[in-house]
Amino acid sequence: MRGGSVGRVDLRRTARDLGVLAAAVVIGLFMLQGALEEYPGKSSAEAWRDVAVGAAAMLVLVLFRRRWPVRVCLLLTVAWLFSAVAMGAMAMASFTVAVHRPWRATAAVAALNTGLIALTFALVPLGGARERVQAIVVVTLGYAVLIAAGLLVRSRRQLISSLRERARQAEEGQRLRVEEARLLERERIAREMHDVLAHRISLLAVHAGALEFPPGAPAAQRDAAGVIRRTAYEAMEDLRQVIGVLRDDTRGADPDRPQPTLPEVPALVEQARAAGAHVTLEDGLPDAPEVPDRIGRHAYRIVQEGLTNARKHAPGAPVRVALGFPGRAGLTVEIVNPPPPGPAADALPGAGAGLLGLRERVALVGGTLEHGRTGDGGFRLYAWLPVPADEGPGPGRDL
To answer: DSSP letter string over 309-356?
Structure first.
């Protein structure tokens, strides 16, 4: 791919060089023809010398015009004083200066060459004063057109470069936003797991303490229970030190609040209804086995994110939330809404960070997540979360 890109760049450079050379040759031959018409007594040796100097000027132009545009232009200006053909190379060198150098350098070179053109045509006998003025005007206007074309090419390249840089910055910003969303969701999951682990370990420490201090307990039992209790407390301290940094940047977080699970989904739906949303809950889990808390927490977050997206992007549209347990092997969560009843401009913009976070959650437990537009222009969010047959809620099952 890189070799093909380099090849295309080299092909463009070659095409541009050939175009500049062709324009220089045309201008040079035109000036040579005019010189021969004005000086019919010019010998063939002088004509061939003029062509030779002009050819050397063309070669210098093609080889060095990009590396040293101002120096090449000044050198070809001197060559033009001895060769009419070299004027074509000088003109295209001025065009190159306008393309590759700032306007100050371009203005200086243009002023110098314009003055030399006017002075040369004024000193050389070309008939009457009227013919001289006409020649100076025509050549100066042609030279000005070349300079203006070069400035136009330079401004166009700068515009394209600016647009490419903006596009690159936009892509980089989007990539950073996506990465930040993933990291934030992983931190959120880590905080939730910290709360759950802290609760489980504290229960373990309490029960170990109860086994350590009962009257008449064997010494071996008290020693073992003491080891368990101290290890549990040390584990809680280590966990607090590791996860505590995640809470420093969480404004307004309530570390003691229990994490919501699947039984809190109806309350979440009621909150959405109280806020004015039209939400229908299809609960297909009455006869299903109990869902572990670690799966229920992710299901709750999926429903929460689906309702939030529906409220942002389809305000006023009815939302259907469906929970199921097909095949008794996994929990399904589906949130569907039709297009909003109002104009599309009423919807709030979003960056998709919430869906990225859900993908992280679902991938964490080995599930699948699907989302996209429906046939009628609505939106569907579907997740499948695996539930092991021998797993249920309770101590030790939430790790």
So the answer is: HHHHHSTT--EEEEEE-GGGTEEEEEEEE---SS-GGGSPP--SHHHH
**Which two tokens mark 112?**
């110098």
For 56-100, what is each residue's pLDDT tens digit?
A: 888 888 888 888 888 888 888 888 777 778 888 888 888 888 888
Give helix 353-365 / helix 293-313 axis angle, nearest 10°.
Answer: 160
- Asked if 196 contacts 259 with a C-beta cutoff of 8 angstroms, the reply is yes
- 396 vs 334, higher pLDDT: 334
* Contact present, 288 and 248 (Cβ < 8 Å): no
Give me the helix-helix angle, 129-212 and 353-365, nearest 10°.
40
CA distance 152 to 164: 18
Pick the CATH number of 262-386 from 3.30.565.10, 3.30.200.20, 3.40.30.10, 3.40.50.2000: 3.30.565.10
